[in-house]
Amino acid sequence: MPTTEPVPERVPAPGAARFPVVDPATGEAFDEAPDQQPDELDAVVGRARRAWSVWRADPAARSTALRAAAEAVEAAGEGLARSLTREQGKPLAESYAEVARTAARLRYFAGLAPRTRPIDDGRPVRSEVRWRSLGPVAAIVPWNFPLQLAAAKFAPALAAGNTVVLKPSPFTPLATRMLGSVLASVLPEDVLTVVTGREPLGARLASHPGIRHVTFTGSVSTGRMVARAAADSLARVTLELGGNDAAVLLDDVDVERIADRLFWAAFRNCGQVCMAVKRLYVPARLHADVVEALAQRAKTVTVGPGLDPATELGPVNNAPQLARVEQLTRRALADGARAAAGGHRQDGPGYFFAPTVLVGVPPDSPVVTGEQFGPVLPVLPYRSLDEAVEAANGTGFGLGGSVWGTDLDRAGAVAERLDCGTAWVNHHAELSLAQPFAGVKDSGVGVAGGPWGLYGNLRPFVVHRPPEA
């Protein structure tokens, strides 16, 4: 089934609309991407449906194609990583890691296949549960991990026998278009199609009657709109809607030993991680020590353009998000908080915000109750462990959380009390390809990752037969 010759991507017709792509390290446009219009989706989805009839028929060929796709992504790693850093802003080393995870996810799902399950219910009937693919899948991806999150959606969908229409954020379309071109060299035509454009392209894709599953990562408000759009055609939805993860430090924690891990759990990718630590609850007697340790790291981390080898922390990805981070920080400071580090935009071009550690933040401040999605961390003291757990569970989010302490059994018992999809002990936001990933409350609907991600792209098909004579 895989082709051996590179397949050129479909290019827009001369004079077709385009939109600028901005380098967040400079704040200036450096390239353009096709601004595909909603009325173009009928043809795209129609081709995806026709490709589905062949793609779904041969599981062995799909597995071979996905392994070849992983190798193709690895071979194109340098170009993909540099393109990703240029439009997203993250340090180049992190972009290389994202490309590697993209390939690893393809390889992982190439090795998974659904299992036929016999039903033994005591009746004289031979029954089996088999699995069938759904049809064209819409994958709508945000700007913080464009390639990794795209693969988290299309790899299980393709492995299950579906075809995919992939739409990246208009802030980060270029690396995804390049990825689509790379994959086109090893996948059959129209099995994976990348479409780029500004709204209402995403809304039209989510509501398209030919789409049978919509998988989306983004904000809660947009996720609700996606769910409403998909409801008209009764398409399945999988929604990962972000988080406001709390980390709870216990009174036996070794502050200096965990400080680096804790800092990067909050500030990696400039805090633009759905599972980042976004609130930190600390015993009152350790509060000053924790603030000092994190503030020292915030003040000394190297912030700069992602293509600079010395950079450890890049810019915020886009102007609207920078404005949001700035507004939330100003509001907290106006309400009585103090910045132990940072607290302001950095001088010069680009969307840089100084790594910020906030103390004295009112517990009802939006930077605590909402999702800042930037390099800002409020550190809040607590008097009793029950108070800390109640506060950690006290928002509408429930993606992840963590507990940090020396007594692992005690920390594990506290982690059990967190109302979230994943809880960690002494680390945060570490996932394997084989584990499920899901949130509760406003953090999402459905499950991604591991076999759960595969079965989320399949439907059961039951076959009844009379018993053998």
UniProtKB/TrEMBL annotation:
One Pfam entry name: Aldedh
Residue span, Aldehyde dehydrogenase domain: 17-454
Keyword Aminoacyl-tRNA synthetase: no
Region named Disordered: 1-37
Active site: E240
Keywords: Oxidoreductase
Transmembrane regions: none
Record bears the keyword Oxidoreductase: yes
Family statement: Belongs to the aldehyde dehydrogenase family.
Name of the featured protein: Aldehyde dehydrogenase
